[in-house]
Structure formats: structure tokens, C-alpha cells
Fold this sequence. Notes:
alpha+beta, globular, amino-acid biosynthesis
Amino acid sequence: MPAILSRVAPRTFNLIGSRLMASAARLETVPREEIDKEYDRKKTFYHRDLEIQLAGPGQLKTKPLDPTKLKFGHTYADYMMTCDWDAERGWHHPKIEPIGELKIHPGAKVLHYASELFEGMKAYRGVDNKIRMFRPEKNMARMKRTAIRAALPDFDSEEMISVLTEMLRLDQEWVPASDVCSLYMRPTLIGTDPTLGVGCATEAKMFVITGPVGAYYSTGFQPVSLLADSRFIRAFPGGVGAYKMGCNYAPTIWVGKEAASKNCQQVLWLYGENEDLTEVGTMNIFLFWKNEEGDMELITPPLHRGLILPGVTRDSLLELGREWGEYKVTERTLNMQEVKKALAEKRLYEMFGSGTACVVSPVGKILYHNKITDEYEELHIPTMVSKYGVMQKFYNTINDIQYGRIIKDGWMRDI
């Protein structure tokens, strides 16, 4: 312990009360491998530098009695994590403290030029009462790629996961004791330097908020209707459609309202003259069909054009499908004419979205704008009556892994 205390003593002993006790307790648990690692705050923040300010009795909120009824994003846990960065010093010490408002200058880059990115991930309380995160290294790898594309500071994935683990330990009572609910985690990175003018941020802030979320399907699977209209485009080659940035989402809100006005719950995003399928709402899209060669096939659009966010659930479904070996698994471009042809020939059996919030979401209908006739066509997808049950098997398997009923090596991270 003397070596650790001498390194952080000036910071630690300036703290008082609960913060001092939490920091001292934290020092007791620093693994030797953390101490021996390279230390360069220009490259990352460090778990070993974590400061924890415990909430007082008046700051702890009442836990929801029935988490299954919670609306997504309306309830927050007790703690948040923040960590500042500046170009001169690099990363500052990460802090976990009671959740509160952020103070930000009105000239901050994020408010004017969308210098921002985020992640969405979950922690689950298993049937054995252990709390685990689902494939957090995948989220962190994507967040790091997005940070580079957004000209925001890089960081070390494992350091971030270690800090998230500490948050979960503090907020463990907020992880619902339910096998249909979870704790949603929203890591976010924003440019904060108060200077107008498009350019690289010289100051930034990483923060993480969390909150319990209820069952996505409270009454079983509900098929969605999609508006497919190639006049609306989500992403294009060379753009940032493959990165989880807020600037990808704001322009879709109005299109979503247009879809709702036509009794559709989501948008099927098309691209190009051939009307290639890309995403559905904020999810990746999958089809299960018999292809024109007569093979049973699970198919999803590819990532190489940069039009599609590389979803963690998408990757998980592809990996499981290939492991099972029950059908062909393909990543390739497909378009609306192929979908219409397969429906007409009765060889399109299932269509579904995939994402963190729902795992899978069945598609029941597409309202397709025919650009030649300028009229809308209704295409009915037989997902809910499919005898193959591909979507259902994916849902059951992912759900069982997340709640500890199935052990999948390397997919769950214990806290």
C-alpha cells in the first residue's frame, strides 16, 4: 500500500467525509497489474485514479416498485460518472458522484457543431442474482472508433469498463430483480471548449448515466409497420452512418413523424437507385427466407459501405446463426425489388430488427412508396405466423445468456 498512497496522497487527503472514505476503500482494491501498467493520461483516464463521492441519505432516490412498467429513459439511478479532458493535460481523474446537472458554457462545441457521441448498453441481474454486463467490450470498441471519427479524445476500453463496474456496484440496487428488465447504461462524450468556429475540440467531457428499463414487450411480441420511402435517406457512403453520433438521430425524427402519420411505427431506411435496405428505425435489419438458389438463408445488409451502424446485437445474432449451422448466414446488399419478389413467391418468412433495447423486433407490414407510380403499396410480412421460429429462437437464446440461464463464454462481464 505505501507505493499506492504516495502516488495519490496529495489528492486523496484533500478529500473529506464520505468522499475520503470511499477513496480510501477504493485504494484497498487496486490490483497490482493496474499499478504496473503504463501511465499516460494523454492516452486514457485510469480506474486507479477514480474518485467516488457517496450520496447522502437525502440524495438517494426511491426505487421503482414495479420496474416492468418503467418507460425507457424516464428514470435514473443514483450515480453518474464524469471525466474531463483537455488537449494540454489529457484526461483528468474520473469521478463517480450523485447524479446532477452538468455545467456547460453556451459556446460549447457540442451545442453548435454536434461534437458528440454516445453508446447504449445494459446490465442484467441474472437468475443467480449476479449482475453482469452484456459484451461491454463491443460497445467500447465502437465508442472508440466513433471518438476518432468525431475528432474527440481516445481512451482505453478496459479502463472504462472497470469504471463502469464500480458504478454498477454502487447502483446495484437499481438493477431490477426481473428477467424482463435491466439497467440501461448511456456513456457519452461531448466537446465542451467554449469557442465558436468549426474545429477540433480542445476540451471534452465523458459522462455516464444509467437507469432501469422495463420490459420492451410487456404483452408479448408486437409486430411493427414500416414506412419505406427512398426519398428519405439516413446515411450515405463516406458519411457517419456507421458511427453512434447524435447527428445521425436528430434528422430522422421528422421522418418518424411522417411514418406515424401513416400508421407506421418505424422507418425502413432505403438507399440509392436500387432502394437497398439499410436499417429499420434505429435497429439493424434481418430477413429469413429461401433464396433464389433454394437455400434457407438468414440475410442482413453488409457494413462495408459505411451506411449501417455495426450493432452489438447484430454481431451476436450473426455469430449464433453461424454456430447453429441450420441455414446459410449471409451479409450482402439486398433491395426492395428482391423483397417484393420473395413475397410474391412466398419464400420470405420472417423480417425483424435487432438492437439493444428489444433484442429483436418483428416486422408485420411495410408501407412502400413506389417511386415509379408515386403511390403507396402495402406489403404484408408473415413473421408472426412463420413456422421456422428463427426470430423467436434468437430472442430466447440472447435473453437466456443475458440473465444467466445459458453460459456463453466471453459474452457476459461479471461485476
